[in-house]
Amino acid sequence: MQTKRIIITGVGVVSPFGTGKEAFINGIETGLYCAQAITRFATGAVRSKEACLIRDENLGDIDPRLARLPAVYRYGLVAAEEALNDSVINLREEEKDRLGIFYGTACNTEQSVQYHLTLTERGPNSVSPLMFQNTTYMAGPGIISIRNGITGPAIAIPGGYSAGLQALDIAVSYLLSGYIDRALIVGAEEVTRLQHEALSSLKLLSPTRNDTEEISRPFDADRDGMVLGEGAGALMLEVSGNAKEPGKKVYAELVGIGITHDAYRTADVSPDGRGLEHSMRAALTNADEDPQSVDYIAAAANSTRIFDNAEVAAIQKLFGLGNKTPVSSIKSMIGETSAAGAIFNVVAAVFAIANSFLPPTINYKNHDPECDVDCVPNTARPQVVKFALANACSFGGSCGTVALKAFA
Amino acid sequence: MIPTKEEIADKVKVIIAERLNLGLSPDQIGNDQVLFGPSEAGGLGLDSIEALEIVVALEDAFGIHIENDEGIESRFQSVNTLSDYVIELLQDKASEEA
Amino acid sequence: MRRVVITGIGVLTPIGKSKNTFVKALKEGRSGVAPITLFDTSKHRYKLAAEVKELNPEKFFERKDLRRMDRASQMILIAAREAVADANLDFGNEDANRCGVFLGTTLGGMISGEKYHRMAQRNKLRLSLLLDFAPHAIADRVAIAYKLQGASSIFSTACASGGHSIAYAFDTLCQQKADVMLAGGVDTVAEFTQAGFGSLQTLITGDDQIRPFDKNRRGFALGEGAAILVLETEAHAQARGAKIYCEFGGYGVSSDAQHMTAPDKEGKGAAAAMLSALKHADEPKENIDYINAHGTATKYNDLMETRAIKRAFGSHAYQLNISSTKSMIGHTLGAAGSIELAATALAMNHGFLPPTIGYETPDPECDLNYVPNESRPGRIRAALSNSFGFGGANISILIRESKTARIHSDPH
Questions:
Q1: Residue C411 domain-assigned?
Q2: Which one of A64, A157, A240, A310 has the fewest beta carbons within 10 angstroms of its own beta carbon?
Q3: Do A154 and C100 touch (CB under 8 A)?
Q4: In chain C, which residues have their Cβ closer than 8 Å to the Cβ of A180?
């Protein structure tokens, strides 16, 4: 990266593992599988009955006024505030206009579907004045900004599954341009009935069959679709040198980032993986590193043939056929968490570096010759990780990669 | 009672015509016309999303499950092959329930 | 200093479906507000909007492609086509990895989404309607159409969306991450939004007009449209002999951090955004000749914006020409920042000041110069385009005459 160095000084997580980053680290170290029967909504005829959902009671003490907010905004707020408090003990008033909020998400809220129903069933004049607040993408960052009095730029990026990394890219740009001194990046998503039903109809979810259960198993030969997940990941970024506070911890340095598009087909991903190939190459070039120096890749693979095969193709193109750089997918544990997943991958890579281990790809039973990678099967592996990549990919072709190193 | 192949074929053609907004009526679709072949070659020119639309509609209409397996493409060659497939699935279903 | 310039403009608006017809309509002060035709308004209290009339998408796309294109996708691609042609741009001569698209939208393919929900309630799942529902589909479509493999993103900051997208294109070019960027925005008139804004009671009814800054202003009508601007570095533009509209000088951003639907009455955030734009563009405030206001004609916004302009400009505020093009095209939400920046660039290029129409009774609290009702010839050396969105996202973009390069001008 250019002359300024970008560091991660705060992390916040609301994930299927639980609330807080400790639960997340513990989850990926022990290889916990989070899928459970969906009880939040009726799954009807949909044959995928499981998802990795957040349990409300685990969100901790929330202001009762927030209890009726759409879930995704609650997740985003809790994760953002954890990252904020993790990084800054006391944000002074004069610093509040120098903090920006960059919020990536993919789908709209469950409540927005309710409004559509109200519109159809009871007509336009019975739509609540609250509808806006509960459906505008701007509410995600807006709520964080309003509750914390943050007057720097606040931007929502409804960019698909890779939105979290797009938000990160925009945040870095704002930091480098000097508009802000700190950036809060959030990737947040909730599982909605609409998403669940639609993705199942598109044959993208792992279904329950007679002889097998639905399961998230990236890279496995028997993989047959995703299991959905939800939550929010948050990062606080700063420019090194502005970090004046004593005892400030730095989780990692962001040394490269690449955001690309494969320009292939709407709602699809190019099978040659060129989107990820280019984003990984861009991140490496940015970081002034070669593929050989990569110790770990946090994968975008999500147990669909589309994503997994494309990512493997990208890795083989860039790293060489038969390359054994460890590449694992935490989506095997928490499911496809859409925009949150992009940030979760960054968090996984950050703690792989910090705690010297490789998160596993669990539920892995049968090697697929078309996914000939070291996916760190089933158990976390102790390993020194100095340089890691985190990937994200979206249906539609938008891809991203972030390159991370320990901060020295 | 499993419908006849002719009844199924008619239903399939109605589904294709109505759901896919092709500007065709059901009787303008040939029973052996290649569904996914290019229109210049006499096919219907459908693509993978339209295949999924047909799958959803068939599952709904006949109460069956269509798996995204190897060999699925050959089942979707034409209205006739699709109707054969539906009959198979209905027969499987009937014998499971028996 | 790396300069960024605008080399192409494509628009689809309620008062003109191309750049040239839009300019003509702006000069004539035409209104695009009319009774809604895109959906049945018999149950709606508010029945007016500024629609793009007779879009006729079959003239631009094959039936096969139209089958699953939302109106938003259609509009953005039509605007992109004009912009790329206007810039005389052939992406085949560019490095695809260094070209991308940033778009603002609040709704994405909402119309398709509405249809999907209506049919899903009748237990009919129409998957193809979902493909364009997610907002990122519009950026994907533009990237696919022109084979752009650089970064593509969607910005959704309510009414400021179409400004943020273009501002980020500017940043991307300044940081040398790209050579050419398409940037703009789109939003459609949809039942969902009409109902939503209706419940907030910010829409006009009956015979009323949109009257920004007027004493009797009662709000706006929703509008729809799309705009795409082609941005590149000045060096890149000169190297390929591109004609140049103006320079993108810089921008300023801030947030009100107060309330999801009501702006800060004192306009501190809005003022901060304008001052920040002046600072980043290194432009003295006295050089600003024109401000394209956010100007939604609500009681609050226009008062707040007037106060904010006075805060930022001091006595020079009274020398400024300020107008709200929303008086003509309605509030185009995610497209607003882009269409309005395009209007400003075109006005600069053609040497005129767009009017604020519907202006009948001055408001003593809004006492600046709003170019009432009729456009006027006038030189614009530098201008600001403001967008202050719900949720308090504020952006102010500064453009100015290009000092060194050839001016883009068509005979009109």
A1: no
A2: A64
A3: no
A4: none
